[in-house]
Amino acid sequence: PRLQRFLLRYYPPGILLEYEDSGHLHTKTIDLLTLSPFTLGATLPQALQPRVLADRIAEMEPLITAYKDYRGDLALMIQKLINRIYTPSTKPFQPYNTLQPHSLPLTNVAINKSGSRIVTGSYDMTARVWSTDTGAEVCKLEGHRGVVYALAMNNPFGDKIVTGSLDGSCKLWNSSNGHLWHTYEAAQGAVLTVGLNYTSTVVSAGSADHTMRIHDIETGTTMHTLAGHEGEVVAQQWSAQGDRLVTGSMDGGLCVWDLRTGNKVQTFEGHHDGVTACQFNYLADIIFSSSLDSTVRVWDMRMHECFHVLAGHKRPVFDLALTSNGNRLATASGDRTSILYDIHTLSPICTMTGHTGEVVSVLFNSQGSRVITG
Q1: What whole-number distance in Å separates Cα of residue 287 and Cα of residue 129?
Q2: Among candidates 209, 202, 246, which has minimal Cα distance to 224?
Q3: Which helix (H) or strand (E) holds 257?
Q4: Which long-range contacts (CB under 8 A, 24 or more apart) does 73-77 make?
Q5: Please, is 231 exposed, middle or buried when counting C-beta atoms within 10 Å of its C-beta (0-12, 13-18, 19+)?
Q6: pLDDT tens digits, the chain, 374 residues: what are they?
Q7: For the chain, what is the largest distance between any 2 Cα atoms, rounded to a whole number of angstroms?
Q8: What are the phi and psi torsion angles at 127 (to 5°)?
Q9: CA-wise closest residue to 78 among 13, 19, 27, 140
Q10: What is d(CA 143, CA 213) in angstroms, rounded to the nearest whole number?
Q11: Which residues, 6 or more positions from 223, have their beta carbon under 8 angstroms from its beta carbon?
């Protein structure tokens, strides 16, 4: 194999190696998750100095060792990465724009990777796409016969939107013009959560019938029906590697599934009420879950246990979100607030206020510099 060039991945931080092998181009990823705006100070720790880090990476990666001028080029790329993600600021999170998109209450929000588009779902049986900066409506997604309760975008591409409705249907849309691409097999109950894997090859839809259905995005066929919960499946997330799916249910439990076989591989129990949201960290060795019991629990996949409970809310926690580098977590609660936590210390940083009603949804932009709450 012969190294061709280095490529940068800003969020989460990493270096991509493009190399040629037997006449074909391939890529290999080196994760640098410890590089973040929150771990880099004005003076970098010795272990994170670009030259030192370049040497450490080269020792572990034969492709770079064989590259003659790896040290200078790789150190330069790491410096660019640090410059991009380290933007010193003492400004707190504050309102950026306010949208009044629907005549009836919102149910969910989603955002594309660049943060330029926001999707909202509503009790008015529609979903709408908005410009973040101007607040103008880009397109309206119409066709459901019930409340649009769940939605998701296929980040990092951002060209597809999946919606799930209380009418039992799941639909795939073009995010630019609102064109309906596909309607997937209806569940036996309301669709309460939807998602796409990171390669945009499958759609996942959780239902009030206690199951999660996995659909082929092109053919529309159902690949797996995941059964194992004893309550409505209301939360899900795919691992970054695409081989695992975590689901959360009103039965208070979490299940982890192997999507190659459709088998359940782990179960986590400990919440005292229904699970409302769940997320893997980037490495998929930790799971975060929020619940109607007013807490967020942190689970260790390897030890198969909850090792911390994030308290702070006085009412149910309806949603949670992680920054793409996994250093910050934000919550949405019925107490009208959103709390920002430091994942390294598992302590609260600040409480964001301003809503006059329950906060039911929260998410970050890809850089982790903005929080959207609804």
Answers
A1: 30
A2: 202
A3: strand 253-258
A4: 73/6, 74/6, 74/15, 75/50, 75/51, 76/50, 77/6, 77/8, 77/15
A5: middle
A6: 788 888 887 767 788 888 888 888 888 888 876 664 444 444 445 555 777 788 888 777 888 776 656 677 888 888 887 776 655 555 666 777 777 778 888 888 888 877 889 999 999 999 999 998 888 899 999 999 999 999 999 887 889 999 999 999 999 999 999 999 999 876 788 999 999 988 888 999 999 999 999 999 888 889 999 999 999 999 999 998 888 999 999 999 999 999 889 999 999 999 999 999 999 988 889 999 999 999 999 999 999 999 999 989 999 999 999 987 788 999 999 999 999 999 888 999 999 999 999 998 898 877 778 888 88
A7: 62
A8: -120, 150
A9: 13
A10: 21
A11: 202, 214, 215, 216, 262
By CB atoms closer than 10 A (0-12, 13-18, 19+), residue 18 is middle
pTM of the model: 0.74
**Which run of H or E residues covers position 52?**
helix 50-60
**Residue 298 Cα to chain centre, angstroms:** 16
CA-wise closest residue to 82 among 24, 10, 27, 171: 10
List residues bridging with 319 in a β-sheet: 332
Separation CA 215–CA 88 (nearest Å): 43
Kindly state the DSSP code that residue 14 receives in the 8-state scheme: E
Beta-carbon-side half-sphere exposure of residue 240 (alpha carbons within 13 Å): 16
CB 1, CB 20: distance < 8 Å: yes
The amino acid at 301 = M
Residue 205 in 3-state DSSP?
strand
